[in-house]
Amino acid sequence: NRRIVLASRPNGLPSTHNFRLEQAEMPTPGPGQVLLRTEYLSLDPYMRNLMEEIGPTYAPSVPLDQTMVGGTIARVVASKHPQFRVGERVLANAGWQDYALSDGQDLLALGDDPRPSLSLGGLGMPGFTAYVGLLDIGQPKPGETVVVAAATGAVGSAVGQIAKLKGARVVGIAGGADKCRYAVEELGFDVCIDRRDPQFEQRLAEACPDGIDVYFENVGGAVFDAVLPLLNVGARVPVCGHIADYNSQNLPAGPNRLPLLMAAVLQKRIRMQGFIILDHYGERFEAFRREMGEWVASGRIKLREDRVDGLENAPEAFIGLLQGRNFGKLVVRVGEG
Ligand code: NDP
Question: How far is the CA of 155 from the centre of ligand 1 (A)?
Answer without folding.
Answer: 7
